[in-house]
Specification:
The chain contains 13 helices and 20 strands. The protein is α+β, with helices and mostly antiparallel strands. Bound molecules: 3'-phosphate-adenosine-5'-phosphate sulfate (PPS) and magnesium ion (MG) (3 copies). One magnesium ion binds next to strand 10.
């Protein structure tokens, strides 16, 4: 925890600058928090990035700051998350490397290595492997007693007697990945983990979330269906504090830094690797996006295979949502599977607001990534009645879109509530993410106009 005193922040490296504080009325974007503005616009980025979540604000004499107005001088208690963000980005990079290795071996997979869960959704070595790896690394970096994780997978299937070969594969995959930790600037285990330790690491992710305290939210492989089909998927890690998403990191191993390579990627997979990749080096490496709430910035870096040789902060580039606000030129994306979201309802909505392009159907939170970096303008998801959205399917993506300048709410225009356990309780009808407020408002109105006549 750090203090911003008299509106002058002294960064650890020295130097100082003024920070002006504005209460924000933009609840959908900032959840009613405070915005920081430095006295010089060039310093704004540094100021907001340097400041973490604001815990309290008061006048110099300690009296509370009124809720409106402009403050030149204030005391500000902030929580900084630089270590958490650094570790989260590195471990997501490691997890992407694990997934790529497993996906590349996919062709040789036996069917029994892809398991079906009770809801018939698939789960693989990569899902368990990433969950074990992230859990182990976070515990190692922050202390086992300080780490609480809400995550998708459990050990039920893996612990069954007839799945010992599968469990062995998971343990092997985790150990190969953890052995790489030093190349990502992280500490690996002194000796390979045993079966018990891997199972423990997976099962430790048993937090139920909620409105208080700090916990991580992990979807080890989001879009497992896309993953097993050789298509898009994401590794999603978020940090929550007192019910708010503070950090979001999204690893997208098949989503190239440059959109132009995406078509190539799809073509490449369709032809089952009969093509040789383009010569431009890292086309296939995918990307990792990340953002810290309230910073007003979102970043993207390529998948990196050797952190030791890489100055990752310098190879990151800032991302921003698209500036297109005319629906006629907008692209809307949605889930691939129509069982996950009503394609007919969104087609009607798109038509009624004047969207002309065909929907971009993409597996996983790569849809959030597409909005955050301006490859698409609208994301809509309307699950069937009775389905409850889980926080790990959205947390990381939401904060990244918001910090890249976009808007994410439910269909009633309210922010998604991540504070009520593992589900997005109280979600009104569906999820709408847009690059800007204008498009967002149009979609919300269109939902209201057509909801009653829908079968949802
Ligand atoms: N019935 C139903 N309705 C809505 N959502 C569901 C449903 N079943 C599953 N899921 C969750 O959807 C995650 C994948 O969502 P997507 O939006 O990427 O859908 S799709 O794969 O593109 O069709 C997927 O995440 P992963 O399990 O991590 O792949 C699920 O949590
Ligand atoms: Mg799943
Ligand atoms: Mg998921
Ligand atoms: Mg998953």
């Amino acid at each position: 925890m750090a203090w911003l005193s008299h509106a002058i922040y002294l960064p650890p490296a020295g130097g100082n600058f003024q920070v002006h504080i504005f209460p924000t009325r933009d609840r959908a974007r900032y959840g009613g928090g405070f915005l920081l503005r430095s006295s010089s616009s060039t310093r704004f980025a540094a100021a907001s990035a340097a400041c973490g979540r604001i815990l309290s604000l008061s006048e110099e004499d300690g009296s509370p700051i009124p809720s409106v107005g402009f403050h030149r001088s204030a005391r500000m208690e902030v929580e900084t998350y630089s270590k958490e963000l650094d570790v989260a980005v590195r471990v997501v990079q490691m997890a992407c490397s694990l997934c790529q290795r497993v996906q590349n071996e996919l062709v040789g997979w036996k069917r029994d290595e892809i398991k079906s869960k009770d809801d018939d959704s698939p789960v693989t070595i990569a899902d368990w492997g990433v969950q074990a790896t992230v859990s182990w690394v976070l515990s190692q970096c922050f202390g086992i007693e300080n780490v609480s994780i809400v995550a998708e997978e459990d050990v039920q299937t893996l612990s069954k007697k007839d799945n010992t070969a599968l469990l062995e594969s998971v343990v092997g995959t985790v150990n190969v990945c953890l052995a790489e930790a030093p190349t990502f600037g992280l500490k690996g285990p002194e000796r390979a983990l045993g079966t018990k330790e891997v199972l423990e690491a997976i099962s430790r992710c048993n937090s139920n979330g909620g409105p208080k305290g700090r916990f991580w939210v992990l979807d080890p492989v989001d879009g497992t269906l896309g993953f097993v089909r050789g298509d898009q998927y994401a590794v999603a890690l978020a940090l929550m504090e007192d019910g708010e998403v503070i950090l979001g990191v999204l690893g997208c191993p098949n989503y190239p830094m440059n959109k132009a390579w995406l078509n190539y990627h799809q073509h490449y997979y369709r032809l089952m690797s009969k093509l040789s990749p383009p010569t431009s080096g890292c086309w296939h490496k995918g990307c990792v996006m990340y953002a810290q709430k309230g910073s007003g910035e979102a970043w993207m870096q390529p998948l990196i295979h050797d952190y030791g040789k890489f100055d990752w902060q310098n190879c990151a580039r800032k991302i921003q949502v698209s500036s297109v606000s005319d629906p006629a030129f907008a692209t809307f994306c949605e889930p691939v599977e129509k069982t996950n979201s009503s394609h007919s309802f969104t087609a009607g909505l798109a038509h009624s607001v004047g969207v002309r392009k065909q929907p971009l159907r993409v597996y996983s939170m790569v849809k959030y990534a597409a909005i955050a970096r301006g490859d698409a303008e609208i994301f809509m998801k309307f699950a069937r009645a009775g389905y409850k959205e889980k926080i790990w399917d959205h947390a990381a993506g939401v904060v990244i879109i918001q910090e890249a300048g976009g808007v994410v709410t439910d269909a009633g225009g309210r922010p998604l509530d991540f504070s009520r356990g593992i589900y997005l309780e109280g979600l009104d009808r569906g999820i709408i993410a847009c690059s800007g407020a204008l498009l967002h408002e149009k979609i919300i109105k269109a939902v209201d106009a057509s909801w009653d006549s829908s079968n949802l």
